[in-house]
Amino acid sequence: QVQLVESGGGLVQAGGSLRLSCAASRSIFSINLMAWYRQTPGKERELVASITSGGTTNYADSGKGRFTISRDNAENTVYLQMNSLKPEDTATYYCRGRELVRTKWNDYWGQGTQVTVSS
Question: What angle do CA 64, 42, 67 make, to 5 degrees?
Fold first, then answer.
């Protein structure tokens, strides 16, 4: 098991930047996939960006060119750098980890951090 704790959310004006952090309670070296999702009221949670243990990244179209996901295995932390923020980026952002243990996938979620972008 691993606990994930997000931080770095807040209120920012459109065009501004934020860096979200996801701190894990133990090493993330073995966690196959780390990802950021976001959710707004009444909508399903959607993928923002993901990064594999090998460093391969994937981005939703909404964040391409503006968001950068990275992982620091030494610090047990995953980051999401968000630039050129837009009001439509307003959401609760969640960190997710997926880990294959023997033949079973374990899924871990953080509690979320709120990002609000004002116009």
Answer: 15
Amino acid identity, position 37: Y
pLDDT tens digits for 35-47?
999 999 999 999 9
pLDDT of residue 76: 96
Q: CB-based contacts of 3: which residues, under 8 Å, 6+ apart?
A: 24, 25, 108, 110
Residues near 2 by Cβ (< 8 Å), separated by ≥ 6? 24, 25, 26, 28, 31, 97, 99, 108
**In angstroms, how far is CA 99 from the centroid of its own chain?**
16
Calpha distance 30→28 (Å, rounded): 5
Residue range 44-54: mean pLDDT, rounded: 97
Distance CA 34, CA 28 (A): 9
Measured between alpha carbons, how far is residue 35 from residues 4, 48, 80, 93, 119 in Å?
A: 11, 7, 9, 10, 27
- For residues 87 and 62, the answer to whether their CB atoms sit within 8 Å is no
